[in-house]
Amino acid sequence: xxxEGNLIPLASEELAQAQLEAIEAKxxxxxxxxxAERLAARLRELGINPDQLD
Length: 54
Fold this sequence. Notes:
Blueprint: H1 11-45
């Protein structure tokens, strides 16, 4: 416990928190990739090649 009365997390708790944050970041990356894929598919439906956009 700190002088202010706050609990100090255990190393295992810090590890669990770091793992959770890594999983959340990976999920966000997956969602962004899926969104990009949906947008690219929609562009193709409209006759636009998304690979040639710069």
